[in-house]
Request: fold
Amino acid sequence: MSTTPEIHKGLAGVIADETAISKVNADTNSLLYRGYPVQDLASTKTFEEVALLLWDGELPDTARLKEFEDFERAHRSLDADLKKIIDDLPTDCHPMDVCRTAVSFWGACDADSEDSSPEAEMHKAWQLFASMPAVVCYDQRRRRGEDPVPPREDLDYCDNFLWMAFEKIPAPEVKEAFKVSMVLYAEHSFNASTFTARVITSSLSDLHSAVCGAIGALKGPLHGGANEAVQHTFDEIGVIQGESQAEAKTRAKAWMDDALAQKKKVMGFGHRVYKNGDSRVPTMQKSFFDMVEHFNRHDIIGLYQGLAESMDEVKGIKPNLDYPAGPTYHLMGFDTPTFTPIFVCSRLTGWTAHIMEQRAQNSLIRPLSAYNGVDERKVP
Ligand code: COA
Reply:
């Protein structure tokens, strides 16, 4: 007698392996990177320190941090051959395609491609960390008809990122909000893109191939692409000059009620693991409000609050990190399609930490499927 197999659609609730990199605790709405609460890291540490924490397992001492910062500052330039390849890509392709192409290029040119020793993998992770911002910033600039802005070695990672994007040193508040977003986006256990990277690594493929796959997974609107989709929602509802916050809120609520009545998925809300709110939202939301203040854009508060209130009232679903992050990047001046590539620059840290962890304790990831096609039959 055959029994019906239990199927875990979307692997929901399945614990696929162990990890020491981060702990997502949905019951307490908390997220730890190597044991440290992410909100404390975001408020006290640089993104460079957090990256080293994820890779090394410990916060860096002065010598380790200097070694990494020296490397990072020396590897920021846009490679001339890669620039040519980017210039040949259509300006209407998605910037995530450009990120994926860049990683593929680096992988193809990597003389140590087949070297998966911990030292070689760490070097590759550092190279990706240092080199990706120039790709993301140049891609946004070429679409605007602007020239690339060379990196500045006297600036730290976040200041230099914003410099290469806008050719301006950001105000300290803007730099801080950007850094907070980078720290919060860096790592989140077995999310879809990280799991993709681990699946690819599990076949003993190379690090660049795993990161290309992860970028593909992150691009989708159910995952990283949600930060762009949130901005599209804001653009669709629109800001009306002279409208009060209460009026904007009413319009936003009506939009949400209508979307939910039509059974639409509204991006920026809900989470597979957190069912009572995303642990990262309060920290990112504070940065969003700081940017509203800094750029004097109180006109979008009504939309922001109206959508969230209506979603909570109708479905009891809370915002996720992408909800405050998308409009924060918009206020900073980034074009909407650049939002998910910024997420890539951050999540590269988590992906590569997981690739190294998977490699160190590898077992081929190969689940089973329950066949539901036609029974065996004869070929006519
Ligand atoms: N908008 C509207 N309804 C939503 C929703 C959203 N963003 N997220 C979940 N729901 C509803 C579903 O429609 C479903 O309702 P039903 O039971 O009445 O059919 C219920 O909540 C469960 O949703 P489901 O998609 O099965 O849950 P999940 O755990 O698979 O979903 C997400 C997790 C992230 C895929 C989902 O919340 C989503 O699509 N969110 C929008 C995309 C997004 O912001 N992604 C970034 C995540 S960090």
